[in-house]
Amino acid sequence: MSLHDQDDPALRCAQEERLRAVWAAPKGIFLKWTDCNNDAVGAWYVLTGFVFMLFAGVLGLLMRTQLAVPENDLIGPATFNQLFTLHGSMMMFLFAVPMFEAVSIILLPQLLGARDLPFPRLSAFGYWSFLLGGVFVGGSILFNAAPDGGWFMYPPLTTRTDLSGIGADIWMLGLSFIEVSSIAAAVELIVGVLKCRPPGMRLNLMPLYAWYILVVAVMILFAFPPLIAGDVLFEMERLLNWPFFDATRGGDPLLWQHLFWIFGHPEVYIVFLPSIALFAMLVPTFARRHLLGYPWIVLAAVGTAFLSFGLWVHHMFTTGLPKISLGFFSAASEAVAIPTAVQIFVFIATLWAGRVNWSTPLLYATGSLGVFVIGGLTGVMVAVVPFDWQAHDTYFVVAHLHYVLIGGTLLPLFAGLYYYWPLITGKKLSDRLGRLAFWILFAGVNLCFFPMHLSGLMGMPRRVFTYPEELGLGDLNMASTAGAFLFAAGVAVICLDMCLSPRRPLANRNPWNAGTLEWLAHPQDEHWGIRSIPLIESRYPIWDQPDFMRKVDEGRYFLPDAEEGRRETIVTSVIDARPLAVIRLGTPAWVPMLTAFVLGSVFILTTYHLYGLALIGSVLTLACVVWWLWTGTAEIPEKPSKPIGHGLELPLYISGRSAPGWWAMFITMMADATAFSGLVFGYYFFWTRHETFPPMALADGPGWFWPMVALLAGGVSWLLTLAARSANSRGATGAMALLLTGAMLAALGSGVAGLAGPWLSGLNPEAHSYPAIVWTLTLWTVAHAGLAVIMQAYVLARGLAGRMTARHDADIRNVTLFMHFFVLSVVVTYATIGLFPEVS
Amino acid sequence: MSDPAPRKWQHRLHITLWVLIVPPTAWAAHFLFSYLWAAISCAKTGHFATMPWIFIGGTVLALAVIALAGWVAWHQSRTPGDPPPHKESTRIDRLRFLATATLLLAALSTVGVIFTALPVVFLRECT
Amino acid sequence: MRYAILPACLLATACNTHQSALAPFGVEAGETRTLTLVMALAALGLAAITFALYFRAVRAPEGSLSHTGGMKLVLWMGAIVPTVLLAGLLLYALPAMRPMDSAPGDLEIRVEGEQFWWRVIYDPQDPQGRLVDANEIRIPTGRTVVFTLAAHDVVHSFWIPGLAGKMDMIPGRENRLVVKATKPGRYRGVCAELCGLAHALMAFEVVAVEPVAFDSWLAEHQAGIAAPPKDSRGARLFADQGCGACHAIQGTEHTGQIGPDLTRYAHRKSLGAGTQEPTLANTADFIRAPEDLKPGARMPTYTDLSREEALAIARYLKGRE
After folding, report:
1. Which ipTM did the prediction report?
2. C6 domain-assigned
3. End position of a domain, from candidates C97, C129, C144
4. How many angstroms separate the CA atoms of A47 and A26, rounded?
5. Where are the transmembrane segments (chain B) (predicted)?
6. Closest Cα of chain A to B3: distance in Å?
7. pTM to 2 decimals?
8. Strand C203-209 relative to strand C136-140: parallel, antiparallel, unpaired?
9. pLDDT by residue (tens digit) across C98-153?
């Protein structure tokens, strides 16, 4: 035991100096932006998201001003359509989702007693992508070029280039870019929760916030990719005239609606659950007891996540789909209310059992639950199909969704703001201003949105820039407008409160007397995250484990030092959080920002049809990624293992299933496979839409020969990669090189044969949806063959350069994992395009 | 951090996070199956599916899988130990927590499957 | 049930009864209003119970609820009660989704959404009886009417709040909506799906009349109505300006199908798909600059036409010349 060592204050001081030096933020007006520590990146992220929210809120106010009186001519339809499209898109894509990721980037390492998340540079990359994409999309309205097709961008209005301008491309490409960064953050958060918990924090002790983040990040993984698949089809139609949504050429506008809402409904829960997660942290604090019904919360989170994927058609109840299909989705839409009710009553029961401390954050939580309950109940109403036929696309739905999102996302975030502000800044916000703001907000939200229930049922459709006076909706709308401005005033008070914060004195450490790990943070900012990584024996260690804070502070737990001058954290096992290894974390660098900017340039240049430059951008992106990986990942440590205290010695290198990198690859590929399945869904969707499919004579299809060659070659490439992995683990570098070369050739051959099918048979993708979807599936799979070649070449180079050895084999293990997914998509694609026409 | 290995079979079952999602996955599979069954039949034949036994079979199968997961979870959740909440850092408490959560999910999934099956009782229309 | 819309009317000075789901004149809309009221009252009750429990919880002294008691609260109020209520709602709502029965002889009206107006075709299957009109739909009360809904350009949505729920019009698809009006009168329908710039200005008149009156109207118009005089100034201008390339007027050589049929323009109660009063002055203004009244309208501007010439065309359309 090394406990007695830590009794020496001089030693502790030296350790602290070393930690401080290692975790010091880069200084200088330029260099500080290279920082990748979660407290810096998270703070930028939150601030940027908040600014986007204010911007989108102003757009909302403009709309309410136009609608204040009937037949108003303040804002014309061209601007108005841009206003509501951007208001919705920004609130969803640039505020709600990124805000949850931003807050989690700040909180999660603290909650888990980790020094940082496993891939700090990935967080930085995500942030810079978000900033660039957000400014690109949001700024478009200043040039009168914003998207104007509604936040769900229904084709053909948005795909016909004579009916919609560059705004549609800005929406598709700009937001696709942001979706990439959202998925990057999801990967980071999942791996963080699963692999970076402190020793002893088994699944049953995980803070509920972490449970929610895990669930939500997994939802992002399955929800965003279908939208990316839709985006791909959408831009193919706009830029290349491939008719996926053009009914005159065998396309169907409903395909987009399906893909959009498979994303769009889980999205609602993706932005709602993290806010409930904030409640799950602050309710126990202010009830001064453990949360009652911990497994129930896990049930609710997991149950909601699943059910939320069975709701998408309830946005399409009026599209004329078969009644029986509507029935299934109506049933699921009602079932999802059950886990939601469970969560609300868990909080009620906890407050009931505890001794309530009626603080400002709890006031916000109470108000938001109230608002949310009303939104939830109207949600059950719109899940009832006959009622939805009336309410759909009216102001009733506007009322419902704002009750849900304000009660379920915005107000809880304000609760979180008041709760966690001391954690971030060391200072408390004002209780007086906070309560004042709350009552203004609460009055504002009800005055603005409650009348909309009525105006909707009284015949006011959504997305109208004006309405006739004879409908008698003037008073209701005037009330809504007044409420909107009232709400804005409440937000202004909160902003004022935050601006006054720097002048206030520092608060005590753990000012709310909370029991969870994040409150170990010092009011004086220390960048190291946590002084020593504790052994966890309770859900509320600060309350339950004696002398906990002191022991952490005196470095009496694990990893209290940074002897080698490296940023490090502990990796543990998924279920029981047994310590497995110490990993070295990424340090400040330009490469994440640079990669984000060159990748962003690809999307932005494509928007303006500058394909040559976009191609250059893609090559630069690839170069940046390779440089990043080569210099920053799978580094072979200078010694095999190091002691972390208490006699534990942990390896400094892990690969395969216990390594964070492997999980990141696995999770990324799950997202990739989901996007791919969106495209496959497109193929079979067109099959159901056409009496004969393929619609032309079979000879016009890609045939079965070339697809089968591509399938075989892809399979060979996979097998050779597997063989190369085992050759590598035997230390046979020569054999590995030979096998990898063969694998590259086979992947290349698979790509060429894949293209040969539709190319040689002269399939014209502009003619009909069938050749278009065949080409799309082929191009997707061929692009993955190209990726496979690049990865295999990279691994080969790593092996030859001595950066990968028999024991240090993370690179080839991760690439093998990629190849598992690759071979799956090869089989599905080529069996679909080559064999399905033969049997159908 | 170390506890004696559990004795009975239901405690020795290899527990991973995947077990937790068996019941909701069964719901999801059943839901997807129901949707495709109806949608494809309506789209390709123009009328409601003529073979209801496929649907009944699928529903019974989904309920059976959920019941099985729930039954195992019920046994696991009755592992002897201190009363709930399962908040100790022990193997047993972790097992009982996961089992309780799985049991609850099994109940929710059962309700979900029954809800999904209800429309077939009342609706037979493609239009 | 009539008094149920009273609270709504208390808030609004003039409560409309011609474009409101709360003032039904059709069977389906009536049933849906009942459903709405039942659900709204239940929702209010549930919200009140939840809030009451919440405040009871906040005020309760520490330890007034044991762990077991708390679990019982969650189990019953969080899980079992909602499950039972939702199951009940589902059993109530699912049968209500069944489409209204229709028989082969029922009146069929095909409505096609265009940017930004409505093409209305009575008896579309019958080559003789086929009657094309625009922006006004006439239906008999007490009889089943089958709407066939389609679109060519973009997605629209057909919504007559007082008659029935809405149904989308999607290019490449045909949707059916079966309705039955119960009360004669003049009502209004609107487009409920964003369809472009003038989406807010895409409405139509619905005229529900007694079956006998409807039959005679249909028979009269199917037989063909008198064509306007051909040699008026307005008629010549109409022809010279090429209006007939897009607009049809029965009994003349103008048979354009791109824009609204103008045969019955004189009978219409609105101009520009429910946007303005169809006065002579408004009609003339619309002819010269449709874009001013309906942004994004497909009709080109005719600013080289003098206002006086435009008035002549308007008089021709209104049949006063």
Report:
1. 0.95
2. no
3. C97
4. 20
5. 17-40, 52-74, 95-122
6. 12
7. 0.95
8. parallel
9. 888 888 889 999 999 999 999 999 999 988 889 999 999 999 999 999 999 999 99
